[in-house]
Amino acid sequence: MPFESLSPRYPAMRKPDVVVIGAGFGGLAAALRLAELGANVVLCETLRYPGGCASTFTRRGYQFEAGATLFSGLGDGQLFSKWNEKWDLGVRFDPLDPLVELRTRQWSLAVPSDRDSFVQRFSALPGADPKAVLGFFGTQRRVADALWTLFEDPSLLPPFSGSSVVRHLGRSLSYVPVVRWMGRPLSDVASQHGLAGWEPLRVYLDAVSQITVQVSSDEAEAPFAMAALDYFFRGTGHVHGGIGSLAWAMTKAIEQAGGKILLANRVRGIRREAGRWRVDTRKGELEAQTVVANVLPQSLSSMTEPQMNGELHDVEASVESGWGAAMLYMVVDSDAVRGPEAHHLQLVDDETAPFVEGNHVFCSISAADEHERAPDGQRTVTVSTHVPMKKLRQMKPDNQGAYVAATQSRMRQTIGRRAPELLEHAAFEMTASPRTFARFTGRHLGYVGGVPRRVGWNHYRPRALWPREAMRDLYLVGDSVLLGQSTLAVALGGVRTAEQIASRNTFSAEAPGS
């Protein structure tokens, strides 16, 4: 995307209605929705490109996805699809079939885009009881249908209006399957259907849960995990040119709606004076009624006075129980991949070991015609694995380096056993630790994935389900708060936070796209 479209350097003091800190998808969505609602918005981003953890960066002439993942929300009627049409974003969304291929030591599974076809394929795996498999995925689907409706109709999400409360009451029977599994792990659902001892299901649930709700099926809060299992079938696929092309397009939409985008403009601090926020940035100071921070709570704490952030201590603790990422960024010859489409692989080396630290990797491979990402005849590959940040941070610096290198060696071992074609056709490789991932994304210490959805009733507390306010008119968005993981989820959280702000304020600007 051209840099010429970005807003020019601004004077030392301006008074927008809202300053948004961070151009991850939570911040981009909040800024765009606020601009649509008539707010005068300025978005400040530390990096020279938008997207945060879901960005596309350039190294050595190649363009890599920062993280290996699939993206949702571009299906018919979904949030990004609506914005793509409304603002003429020009983003090309490529549906994939299969969406991802899971490879283990004894079997592999190509996950199709059609859910019924997927259940049929799963029922054909070694040792399957087709009736029990059908029963499990029937239960899972009822829970997923109830929760995905909230994503497909965001007006049902907090903050609630009187009409949304009435509509929830009318849908109360559809929530019964959800309530039944609240406070229980996903593995209990498998046990209920007599599938606790069937390894293919346990492996699949662990693999999908680790990359979505960030924990194994034995730890995952069942309703969240069952909704995440439908991720592949809900408008998920590949953004042509990398997810960064969607992030850049959203910056242009924000400008079309009247907002300002200021990249390479780190926010150094914020303070409250006379009922307004003063935001100290690299290019000068801004004054605003409201601030939206698309950062982890630890980063927000570093910008504010300590006593201002007491409400977020529980979120900080949850984030610190989570994960960083060890990465391999590769370039392979196109011959390594069958077909011209983008490919996604989940590879498991040892099914009996935890799906972290290189034993389980996710690979995202660019399409053959994404020539802006790699020259003709080559493709870029992003490979990631989870590393426990508590374990890493307890090590001495020298030991951290050795640990990450060993993890990356294990990643290559897993690739060599499950997808040897990638190593055989590799033309370039670059490694990244959580520390370097933090540099690529602006993410505090390189944490990924937000708050792990471990089993527990804490996920249903009102403040966990509502736009998160650290102080009056200071909101947090992103994957550690409202809705949480996935690009679509954080964007919807940004939208609902914007609408909460708009309900409390009167904006003087006209809304070009409202």
Describe it.
The protein is α+β, with helices and mostly antiparallel strands. It has three domains: 3-59 and 71-91 and 240-318 and 450-504, 3-Layer(bba) Sandwich (FAD/NAD(P)-binding domain), CATH 3.50.50.60; 110-233, no CATH class; 323-447, Guanine Nucleotide Dissociation Inhibitor, domain 2, CATH 3.30.519. It contains 18 helices and 21 strands. Helix 3 runs antiparallel to helix 4 and helix 7 crosses helix 9. The two termini are 25 Å apart.
- Uncertain residue segments: 1-13
Task: State the major sheet.
Answer: 8 strands, mixed
CATH homologous superfamily of the largest domain?
FAD/NAD(P)-binding domain
Structure classification: alpha+beta
The outline comes out as globular
* Name given to the CATH architecture of the largest domain: 3-Layer(bba) Sandwich
By CATH reckoning, the class of the largest domain would read: Alpha Beta
Q: What helical percentage do the residues reach?
A: 25-40%
